[in-house]
């Protein structure tokens, strides 16, 4: 399963692509950061994020897109730009016909480090370890995007196992 | 000049199209509300808003798009959905190659009613009057979108006059 993770931001939007299966180490496929100039008008900035994401979706052909869910607990001043970038991210997946999942920062942290309150350094360390890299992925901004992608590979697996278990129970029920 | 105004929202997104020139009454061209189900996943909702807006841009071929600017003063819980819908709105204009302007609610109110703190009823009354309609535009949700479009026709005119004045000054400067 190949997943493209997106850590949405208007100034820096992290993009990380991994491949893997639930319960096994993932493989790093690609990592990027889309940057836009805060002095540019909002339409130019959103169009740039949209155009780049569409390009990565064409280049990497992921099975799913995992986007960080924007939270009302965020700083109000910064939440607007993050929410706008996240809308472009979610829409880019939807437009490409790829399934889109969203995860809160604490869900991604818990999946990767076992703790929902892990700090940036801990996340980078674990992403580096889980992808069996010799050095932290660069650009460093993209570590959270990789974490989201790994989170989705594993959670997607959980969901798939639940679905399999439910299907097995249904079959048993039918046999009774 | 034909302007498509967008009052962004995820549950209800108002769209109003007017035609006019600065300082003269505008003509109502079209008015719509795009609705999405709050129970639907976010990717389906954003895709629906995007698809509908793209359709209206093709149908009406406006010279400009005017979108309400999202404000950090908004309620934090509702600001995320509004910011996401506004990103889709701004992006739809940018993707269509149409110039995009954003106005704060008080800029639109001041342009239409003379007061930046006008209430909903006052805005609807003035929009009805300015478009010389016999009854308030329906759906009522779209009055703010029409106000944004009228605001842009008039403000666009101001900007055009400033540009003309600056150009005239430049020419004088050259002649000296």
Describe this entry's structure for a reader.
The structure is a homodimer of 176-residue chains. Chain A has 176 residues and is an alpha/beta fold. Chain A has a single domain (2-172), classed as Nucleotidyltransferase, domain 5, CATH 3.30.420.10. Helices cover 52% and strands 19% of the residues of chain A. Chain A has helices at residues 42-60, 76-95, 105-113, 120-130, 143-175; strands at residues 2-7, 12-19, 27-35, 64-68, 99-103. The first copy, chain A, is globular, with a radius of gyration of 17 Å. The model of chain A has no long low-confidence stretch (mean pLDDT 89). Chain A binds chain B through residues 41-44, 46-47, 50, 70, 72, 76-77, 79-80, 83-88, 90-91, 93-95, 100, 102, and chain B through 41-44, 46-47, 50, 70, 72, 76-77, 79-80, 83-88, 90-91, 93-95, 100, 102.
Summed up:
The first copy, chain A, is of the alpha/beta class and 176 residues long. Chain A contains 5 helices and 5 strands.
Keywords, separated by commas or semicolons:
homodimer; 176 residues; alpha/beta; Nucleotidyltransferase, domain 5; five-stranded mixed sheet
Q: CATH architecture of chain A, please?
A: 2-Layer Sandwich
Give the oligomeric state.
homodimer
| CATH H level, superfamily name of chain A | Ribonuclease H-like superfamily/Ribonuclease H
The tally of strands of chain A reads 5
Strand arrangement across the biggest beta sheet of chain A: 3-2-1-4-5
> What would the principal axes of the Cα set say about the shape of chain A?
globular
Distance between the ends of chain A: 35 Å
Task: Report the sheet with the most strands of chain A, covering strand number, pairing sense and barrel closure.
Answer: 5 strands, mixed
Radius of gyration of chain A: 17 Å
Which fold does the CATH topology of chain A refer to?
A: Nucleotidyltransferase, domain 5
- State the secondary-structure class of chain A: alpha/beta
What is the beta-strand fraction of chain A?
15-25%
Number of helices of chain A: 5
Helix content of chain A: 40-55%
Name of the top-level CATH class of chain A: Alpha Beta
Point out poorly predicted stretches of chain A.
Answer: none
Along the chain, the helix and strand elements of chain A come as EEEHEHEHHH
């Amino acid at each position: 399963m190949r997943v493209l993770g997106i850590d949405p931001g208007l100034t820096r939007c992290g993009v990380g692509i991994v491949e893997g299966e639930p319960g096994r180490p993932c493989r790093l496929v690609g990592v990027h950061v889309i940057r836009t100039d805060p002095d540019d008008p909002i339409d130019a900035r959103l169009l740039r994020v949209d155009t780049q994401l569409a390009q990565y979706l064409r280049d990497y052909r992921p099975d799913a897109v995992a986007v960080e869910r924007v939270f009302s607990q965020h700083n109000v001043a910064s939440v607007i730009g993050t929410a706008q970038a996240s809308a472009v991210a979610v829409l880019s997946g939807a437009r490409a016909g790829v399934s889109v999942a969203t995860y809160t920062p604490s869900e991604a942290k818990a999946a990767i480090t076992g703790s929902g309150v892990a700090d940036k350094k801990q996340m980078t360390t674990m992403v580096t370890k889980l992808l069996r890299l010799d050095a932290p992925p660069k650009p460093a901004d993209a570590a959270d995007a990789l974490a989201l992608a790994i989170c989705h590979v594993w959670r997607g697996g959980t969901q798939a196992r639940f679905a399999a278990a439910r299907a097995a129970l249904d079959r048993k029920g039918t046999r009774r």
